[in-house]
Structure formats: C-alpha cells, structure tokens
Amino acid sequence: MKFPQDFIFGAAASAYQIEGAWNMDGKGESIWDRFAHTSGKIRHGDTGDTACDFYHRYKDDIALMKELGLHAYRFSISWPRVLPEGRGAINPKGLDFYKRLVDELLEAGINPCVNLYHWDLPQALQDQGGWLNRDCAAWFAEFTSIIADHLGDRVFDWMTLNEPLMAAALGYALGIHAPGYRKPWSMFRVIHHLMLGHGLAVNRIRSENPDAKVGIALDLRPIHPLSNSEKDKLAAEKADIFMRRTFLDPIFQGRYPETFTTRNRLFRPRIKDGDMEIIAAPLDFVGVNTYTVDRVRYSPWAIGMGFETQMDPAAEEEYTRNGVQYTTMGWEVYPQVLYEILMYLKHEYGNPAVFVTENGAAFSDKVVESRVHDEKRTHYLQTHLAGVKKALEEGSNCKGYFAWTLVDNFEWAEGYSKRFGLVYVDHKTQQRTIKDSGLWYKKLIASQK
Ligand code: FCB
Question: Closest Cα partner for 216 from 275, 157, 258?
Fold first, then answer.
C-alpha cells in the first residue's frame, strides 16, 4: 500500500494512560487520580498509578518507536504534573520530564506532536467546578502559554483538546469518566467552555510560536440510522448535529448549529459576545479520532437529544454477530470509517487538512513463545488504512495517520482489561513485546521509501 511521499505514520497515547508516577516529583492530583482511587469506578479496581511506567521508561519506549520506524508520536501533557494546583507555581521536575521527552524523540528522529488536554484536569481546578466553570477556559489558556513557552522552540505540531465531546458526555453527563458527574443538563455549558478554552489556546500557541501548526483532535464517527424508518433517519440527523456539527460548525463557521442555542434554558450555555470569534480561530488541521460507526435510533427517552446509539457493552473476548466482527470494547469493526469521515470533511467542510490522530482496535491478545499473533488487529489496520488511501485517491487532504496506540495501556473505565497496543505489555512485569500488527506497521512504513 503506497501513500504520498510526505504522509506521516505515527502512534498516539495520552499522559494518564501511560505515565504512572501519579504522585512523584511534585505532581499534583488529577481528576483521573481521584476517580480511579474511588471504589467501583474502574473495572477490577485498576488505577493509572503505575500505568506503563512511561515516566521512567520513556527512553525504552522511544527506542521501540524507532524500531517501528514511526515518523511522529502524539502524546499529551499532564497538566497537574506541570502545575500541581492547576495554576500558579510551576513544578520544575514535571516540566523537565516533558523537555527530556521531546529531546529524546527529536534525537530519535521522531516528530513530537503535543496534545495539551487529554482529560486529566488538575483536581484543584475541579474543586472550583472544572469545565462547568467558565474560568476553566482561561486557566487552560494559561497552562497552554507555559507549555508553548517552554517547548515551542522544538515542538511545531500542536493539538489543544482531545475529544471534547467525550470529555463532556462521559465525564459530566453519564458519569462513566472523571469527574464522574451525572448532570446531563450541564453538557452544553461544558462543551462551550471547552471550545472557548480551545480557541484561546490556539492563539496562545501561535503567539509563542508563529511557525506552529495547530489543530484539535475530535472524535468523529460515521453515523448511520439503525433502520430505514423515518424516525431513525431523523435521529441520525440529530446525532450528526450533536456529535459532529456542534464541534465542526463553530471551528469552521464561527457558530453552533441552531439547535445548540435554542435548547431549553436549563441546557443552554451562556455565550458571550466575542466567544465565537475566539473559537473560530483558524486551524492548520483537524485531528480525527475514529474507531467505529454509530448506529443510531430514535429514542423518546433520551431527553433533549431524541436519539440513542446502539452500543454493546465491553466483553472479555472479541466476538462476531451476523458475520460482523466486534472488538473487546463491544465496538463494531466497520473498515469504511476513515473513508467515510474523510469524505464527510471534504464535502461538508471544504476539505481541510486532516490527520487521523487515533484509530485502532482492542482484541484479547496472548503472548505465545515471545510472539503475539494478533491477526485481527493487523487486518483492522490494513483495511482502515486502505480506506484512507481510497479517500486520498478521491481528493481527501489527509496528511497522516496515528495508530492508537503504541503500548497496551490504561483504557479509562475499562482499566487494563483492554489492549489496543502495537506492543504488548505484561502489566505485572512491564515487559514489552512487539505484536505482529506492530511488525506489519513497521513493514508498511519501511515500504514507503
Ligand atoms: C479514545 C480516547 C483514547 C483511547 C481510545 C481507545 O476515545 O481518546 O484515550 O482511550 O478512545
């Protein structure tokens, strides 16, 4: 499979899912530390206290990236590692970790792509309301300035937020992720504050480093009605507005879809003059995180929404139903996801530059004689990348692909029970084994030369 000469192949990860060292060297508590330490929140009572111990093993993991031939690595910064209280005094050791990480990546010839917020808000800021508080946008901008100031001379690729929809929906409405709130009425307020934080951060990065390329990583899935009924089709339109246009319209058109602001008062965010101009700050690219398709049906029970997504629960083992493969997350494998999303962005939003910032699959891997024969993951990567290639042939402006993820890690509410890595991790010994899918990816990258 041949891609354009300058196409980037990388892998992505996030701070809380890999770093561990949750209270070391002056790091402050994050909402994920608090959430994982609360009993009953994470499968098997797992926590990210040690995770993949990336804080200590980053050099070894960068050696693995080099062995795979990765061009780039997308990682996030733990806000409370750098600012233990969320604001104010910098923790020099925390900042130093990210400087060393960037240096080591550059040394290995791997481009560091920094994602500023991947869900681990400082607990000190959550105590003041977190993203429910409009001030959180400004706090995020301050944090961004500090990071851009210290890394901006060596990092040229930036993302502000990871999946604001999931941060708001899972964290504030459904209570499945930190901070664990069940306040569905607050969701649009949270989204607006996140988007405001995004816009402010874009400006901060650019003022520290005018050569920076700046984007945001959104979770964008194809949305299909579950049946051909008019009700389900209408539900799919609503889902499109809520899950995709709520984020893309403000970025590209400087306004939210109408239904966002005409909701009943309880749900409606307060949008101040000038907010939308800030949020619409021009971007250099859009990051797309996508794993599966949303099958949507009409639901009178989803208050304020009118739709719901058919979702299987996570499972111990992957399974097939009606000839369709599902992963251990219970996510349908639908290889056209990337093709469809790239075409959607082309047709609906003027074909912006796009990076696939996350894509991958969780299967129940086993080490057998020092090898991991994960054919299903290899097949997943192969068919999904074929979708990217097809989109490129049809004029998509996709510039690169980041596999989720390098090493098996802490999968949020699912703990360590889900393995997405190109590299297997024995969570007891921290031993790493490159899976067959990792070897396949390595070959693919090498064959581009
Ligand atoms: C995405 C998250 C990422 C990872 C994958 C599987 O929604 O951004 O951290 O957990 O799902």
Answer: 157
Whole-number Å distance, alpha carbon 219 to ligand 1 midpoint, is 9
Q: Which atom of ligand 1 is nearest to the CA of 14?
A: 9
Q: Give the separation between CA 391 and CA 397, rounded to whole angstroms.
A: 9
**Residue 264 confidence (pLDDT):** 67
Please give the Cα distance from 97 to 156 (Å, whole number). Answer: 18
Q: Is the CB of 119 under 6 A from ligand 1?
A: no
Taking each helix axis from N to C end, the angle separating 187-208 and 135-151, rounded to the nearest 10 degrees, works out to 30
Q: Among 289, 419, 420, which is best to mutate for testing ligand 1, by the most ligand atoms less than 8 A from CB?
A: 289
Report pLDDT for 388.
Answer: 98
Give 426 Cα–ligand 1 centroid separation in angstroms: 20
- At 300, list the tokens: 């009178």
Strand partners, 320: 325
92-107 vs 135-151: helix crossing angle, rounded to 10? 50
Q: What residues are labeled active site?
A: 163, 358
Q: What is the mean pLDDT of the chain?
A: 97
The H-or-E segment that residue 289 falls in is: strand 285-289
Provide CB contacts within 8 A for 48, sequence distance 6+.
16, 17, 19, 20, 22, 32, 33, 36, 410
Q: Does residue 303 surpass a pLDDT of 80?
A: no
CA neighbours within 13 Å on the CB side: how many for 61?
A: 28
- Residue 163 CA: nearest ligand 1 atom is 8
Q: Per residue in 31-90, pLDDT tens?
A: 999 999 999 999 999 999 999 999 999 999 999 999 999 999 999 999 999 999 999 999
Nearest to 436 by CA among 369, 390, 384: 369
Helix (H) / strand (E) element for 422: namely: none
Give the pLDDT confidence score for residue 273 in this predicted structure.
98
Cβ–ligand 1 distance for 420 under 6 Å, the answer yes
What residues have CB less than 8 Å from 206, skipping those under 6 apart?
A: 212, 214
Residue recorded with tokens 């996709």:
398
- % of the chain exceeding 90 in pLDDT: 95
Q: For the chain, what percent of residues have pLDDT higher than 70?
A: 100
pLDDT tens digits along 153-182? 999 999 999 999 999 999 999 999 999 999
pTM above threshold 0.85: yes
Do the Cβ atoms of 79 and 143 come closer than 8 Å?
yes
Amino acid at 59: K
Give all strands (DSSP E) within 109-222, no chain letters: 111-117, 157-162, 213-219
Report whether residue 117 contacts ligand 1, using a CB cutoff of 6 Å: no
- Cβ of 358 closer than 6 Å to ligand 1, yes or no, is yes
Whole-angstrom distance, CA of residue 62 vs CA of residue 79: 22
